[in-house]
Amino acid sequence: MTSVPESNAKGARVVLVTGAARRLGREIALTLARHGWDVAVHCRISRVEAVATVAEIRAMGRRAEVLEADLSDEQAARALVPRVLSAFGRLDAVVNSASTFEYDRADSFTYAMLEKHLRANTAPAIVLAQALAAHVRERAGKGAEDGAGEGAVVNLLDQKLWNPNPDFLSYTLSKAALESATQLLALALAPEVRVVGVAPGLTLTSEWLKGEKFEQLHRLSPLGRSSTPEDVAATVAFALANHSMTGTTLLVDGGQHLQRFERDFSMM
């Protein structure tokens, strides 16, 4: 892929966005590029879409590269930050947007289903935060400038953690573990790295929920609308820019977490 001009290659902040080829990850990647970030666009299998995302970011005058990896593979996850450093020379932030979302309930739960979600949704976020912290500390130790001593991690969570229902049990457990990891990592990695959660409400259509039914449920909140991709991406940008924020989660859901739902939206 053609590189952008060298003038863009020095001093810019670099963010790794996982799952950035499509859907919410793509919107986050494009929004951060508009805010002046260079973007490492991670994908697992959606390379065609990732290349298109990179092209849009480069059209803004920002650097961007596609990095493919199956983050459920620990070796691949641990290799990702070194690959970002090889491509960009630095890394300042990680946004963990990639996610596995498969259906199970208490009566269909298996070890394998829980492990699949933990390996995709929880463990990679911890490994990437660990690697970012090591890089930031090494960079600061060398006396580098341009905010060398601070990094940030944003973990995408889910409003259903504050409004639980029994659907998608393994997915929910993996996100609950990630919410706990957000607090634990904020303590463990301070002061060099901040860690913040962002929890959207019903944001995008899916194979289970689309059309008028999606629109109806999207309006089911105290504000009369849940989150849009633009809302969530703007919140991620805010979390990365606010240097006093760590160990907390921002709920972006129109207040849906304040209402009681017996089922997941996609099962209603």
Succession of helices and strands: EHEHEHEHHEHEHHE
CATH architecture: 3-Layer(aba) Sandwich
Radius of gyration in whole Å, from Cα?
18 Å
- The protein's oligomeric status is single chain
Distance between the termini: 44 Å
Could you say what the CATH topology is called?
Rossmann fold
According to DSSP, the number of beta strands is: 7
Helix content: 40-55%
Shape: globular
What is the percentage of strand-forming residues? Answer: 5-15%
Regions with little confidence, pLDDT below 50 for 5+ residues: 1-9
Mean pLDDT: 93
Strand order of the largest sheet: 3-2-1-4-5-6-7
- CATH superfamily, by name, is NAD(P)-binding Rossmann-like Domain
Structural class: alpha/beta
Number of domains: 1
Largest sheet: 7 strands, parallel
Key features of this structure:
single chain; 268 residues; alpha/beta; Rossmann fold; 7-stranded parallel sheet; 42% helix; disordered N terminus
Describe this structure in words.
Helix content is 42%, strand content 14%. With 268 residues, it is an alpha/beta fold. It has a single domain (11-267), classed as Rossmann fold, CATH 3.40.50. It has a 7-stranded parallel sheet, with helices on both faces. Helix 3 runs parallel beside helix 5 (123-141) and helix 5 (123-141) packs parallel to helix 6 (169-189). The termini are far apart. 45% of the residues are buried.
What's the arrangement of secondary structure elements?
Elements: E1 14-17, H1 23-34, E2 38-43, H2 47-59, E3 64-68, H3 74-88, E4 93-96, H4 111-121, H5 123-141, E5 151-156, H6 169-189, E6 193-200, H7 211-218, H8 229-241, E7 248-252
Parallel strand pairs: 1-2, 1-4, 2-3, 4-5, 5-6, 6-7
Helix pairs in contact: 1-2, 1-8, 3-5, 4-6, 5-6
